[in-house]
Structures are given as C-alpha cells and as structure tokens.
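Our preliminary data section would be incomplete without showing what the modeling component actually yields. Below, a chain of 191 amino acids is followed by its predicted structure, encoded as tokens that our downstream tools consume directly.
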Amino acid sequence: APASVAIFTRVLDGFSVLTVMLVVQHLQAASRLAQARLDRQSWLSGLISALARARDEDTLFAQLASLVEPLTPSFGWVFWLKDAASDEFRAVRWSGLGPGERPVLTFNPTLAMDPTEPIVINGPLPGTATGVTTLMQPVLLDGALAALITIGAGNGAFDAPARGLVRTVAEEMAVALSRLQALDAQRNRRV
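Predicted structure:
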C-alpha cells in the first residue's frame, strides 16, 4: 500500500506541475494578446490625434504615410484623391515602396458594386513592383467616393485584422477630409 501511495503522490505532483505550466502558458498568451490590443489602441489614438491637427490635405496625407509605415513595415501604401471632374484617382502620398519606386500619377480602378467594400486584386500596387496582392479600400465622404487607399503586400497579408486596420484608417481619413472640407468652406466664406 505504501508503494501505491507513493506512485499516486508522484502522479498527482506531475499533474499539478503540468497544470501550473498550462496555466502560465495561457496567462502569457493572454498577456501578449492584451498587449497587442493595447498597442493597436495606442496607435489608433495617435492616428486620430495626428489627423485632428492636420490643417490641410498635404499635412493630412503626410501624417497618414508616416503613421502607417511603422505599423505595417512590409506593406506599401498609396493614398489617392478622386478627381471631381472624372473617375480618375490621383496619387497624393505613399509609403513603404521600394527604393526609387513611385505609383502611377493617376489611375481609374474598377471597384466593387458596393462602394464601401474593399477589393483584393492579384498584382502589385499600380505602377510599382510592391506587393504580390493589392487591397483597394474606398474612402467615402457623405456617401460619395472621395478617395482610395491601396496597399501592396504578400499573399495572405489581408486577413481580418489587417482589413479591419485598413478600414479604420479609411474611416479616420474620411473624418479628417470632411473636417478639412468644412475648414476650407469656412475660409472661403471669410474671403
């Protein structure tokens, strides 16, 4: 009987150690996830703050380009404005492109039937060699297409969290553009 008690005690000790190890691993994983969420929220508050300080479109797009590159170093980003007189988009700022690369000056993309939906296409960013696939995220102002964000990256880069991040950037960009349009209208009324 004492031998079976010793074996049972060792098995119970082993089970206890294994349970503690699993709990520690679970807590570490939860901690990493919480840190990633905190980092994303911190970045988002920095984005909103930076865009709120922008007083013109050049500053707005410079802020966007400088903030997205460190967050997604393997992505190439291009920010486009829609020409009011046509369906063409004009590249206004970019980030994360290869040395010496620039996007085409203008292009006329084919977008989804629903203008709020992003599209993933095979191929690099327009006019560059950046990315195997490209995500095109429309930016709407008052329900009308006003701008576009294109992101070039590797295969499988546009998972749900990446798309959520891009959608958030597009939404904040729309808010900032709307605010800038209101400021411009206010300036024009004074003149």
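Helices lie at 2-53, 57-71, 160-190. The mean pLDDT is 86. Preliminary results of this kind motivate Aim 1 of the renewal.
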